[in-house]
Specification:
Layout: E1 16-20, E2 23-26, E3 31-34, H1 37-40, H2 49-61, H3 72-85, E4 89-93, H4 96-113, E5 121-125, H5 134-139, H6 143-146, E6 156-159, H7 164-170, E7 175-180, E8 183-184, E9 190-191, H8 194-205, E10 209-213, H9 227-230, E11 237-240, E12 251-255, H10 257-260, H11 276-289, H12 292-318, E13 323-329, E14 332-337, H13 341-357, E15 360-361, E16 363-364, E17 369-372, H14 380-393
Parallel strand pairs: 3-15, 5-6, 5-7, 7-10, 10-11
Antiparallel strand pairs: 1-2, 2-3, 4-12, 8-9, 11-12, 13-14, 14-17, 16-17
The protein binds pyridoxal-5'-phosphate.
Pyridoxal-5'-phosphate is lined by residues 39, 95-97, 100, 129-131, 181, 185-186, 213, 215-216, 241.
């Protein structure tokens, strides 16, 4: 049947049929350690009992009813998100790209209502990824994403990532917002440097809104609730998606009061956004991840896994294997390959294949970065199994 699918995802040669915890199984019954996690979606692993129970309970009530009515799971998830994040209001979407579209609309509306409609430019960074719809694509700082799909919407400016002077030069009287990822995830797991975080705080102090795209970094993927927390950035708007719905499609825009006050009935909306089943799953996900005991164990496991990977890199580098640096934060992990540009791709492809043969699924980010996105529930045993496979596969 896969022949009838539009070929936008490339050749796929692995059929997954089920998952449990940190593992998935293929159609031949082979088990794999899942360090892709649905590209950062399955933060609590596969088949988490409290997520499944929440889904079943809500599904037994109704699957959908409409945003014309109060939907308890949606109301409760919004309250819980506001409570843990300190933001004042939440809009629910179905996906990350829609959350970014919403955030861009909200930022522009804020200045329009303030009598400054000329403030409508969105500044973002090269190497960023913000999604595949038009505004999100225009904000994305990678040519391969938008080339050939023009014309792009106006009002988007790209600045070299981590180039403070370029940011300062780009921000002007027409800038509404700077849209940024605390760690560029799709763009090669590139951390924002502290100097850029400081520049963003300065820009914000001059009245420019900060929109943090935390679709991949948020909800503790990078070790803190938001990736922005580790950079001491207090964004005006935050977009979330990926793990929020526990595997069901759900995105969110968190906004502070002044922005919430600029949005009125009919300004934005979605038929499916904030689906009650997805929101019920989301409440279960937050319940698990925000638990104090879970967080303590998670921080320890982050230190353990990142420490083991550092040691592996050091050992392999000494043995002449071109594994470069460890990137990212928390369980958003990049391993940059430092071989010659031409050979890197082949090396990485071969490594990915060897890891799969050893029973581990991993992913890439950019041409030369191996990306590991284990579930945040990844156990000490899973870490030991991963390291065993890596030791063998990194040759
Ligand atoms: C940082 C970031 N922003 C936006 C998106 C788009 O999200 P979605 O695929 O849910 O539309 C992604 C997806 O990978 C992402 O990583």
């Amino acid at each position: 049947m896969s022949d009838a699918l539009l070929g936008v995802y490339g050749a796929r040669d692995l059929t997954l049929v089920r998952g449990e915890g940190s593992h998935v199984w293929d159609d031949a019954g082979r088990r794999y350690l899942d360090c892709v996690s649905g590209v950062a979606v399955n933060a609590v692993g596969h088949g988490n009992p409290s997520v499944l129970l929440a889904i079943a309970e809500q599904a037994g009530k109704f699957l959908h009813a409409s945003n014309l009515f109060v939907l308890p799971s949606q109301r409760d998830l919004a309250s819980r998100l506001a409570e843990i994040s300190g933001f004042d209001a939440v809009f629910f979407s179905n996906s990350g790209t829609e959350a970014n579209e919403g955030a861009i609309k909200f930022a522009r509306r804020f200045f329009d209502l303030a009598g400054q409609p000329e403030k409508n430019e969105i500044v973002s960074f090269t190497g960023s990824f913000h999604g595949r719809t038009y505004a999100a694509m225009a904000a994305t700082g990678q040519e391969k994403i938008y080339q050939g799909f023009g014309p792009m919407p106006r009002g988007f400016v790209h600045v070299l990532a981590n180039d403070v002077a370029a940011l300062k030069a780009a921000v002007g009287p027409n800038t509404a917002a700077v849209l940024f990822e605390p760690v560029q995830a799709e763009g090669g797991v590139v951390n924002m440097e502290p100097a850029m975080a400081e520049a963003l705080r300065e820009v914000q102090a001059r009245g420019v809104l900060l929109i943090a795209d935390e679709i991949q970094t948020g909800l503790w993927r990078t070790g803190t609730l938001l990736g922005s927390d580790a950079l001491c950035i207090r964004p005006d708007l935050v977009t979330l998606a990926k793990p929020l719905g526990g595997g069901l499609p759900l995105g969110a825009v968190l906004v502070r009061k002044p922005i919430a006050e600029a949005l009125h009935v009919g300004d934005h909306g979605s038929t499916f956004g904030g689906n009650p089943v997805a929101c019920a799953a989301g409440l279960a996900v937050l319940g698990i991840l925000s638990d104090e005991a879970f967080q303590k164990g998670y921080q320890e496991r982050i230190a353990l896994l990142r420490g083991e990977l550092e040691k592996l890199i050091e050992r392999k580098s000494k043995a002449g294997v071109p594994v470069g640096t460890l990137r990212g934060r928390g369980f958003l992990i990049g391993m940059r390959w430092t071989g010659a540009a031409d050979s890197v791709h082949g090396d990485l492809g071969a490594l990915q294949k060897r890891l799969r043969e050893a029973g581990v699924l991993v992913h890439r980010a950019g041409a030369d970065v191996l990306r590991l996105l284990p579930p945040l529930t990844f156990s000490r045993q899973d870490i030991a199994d991963l390291m065993g496979a890596m030791e063998e596969a990194v040759k």
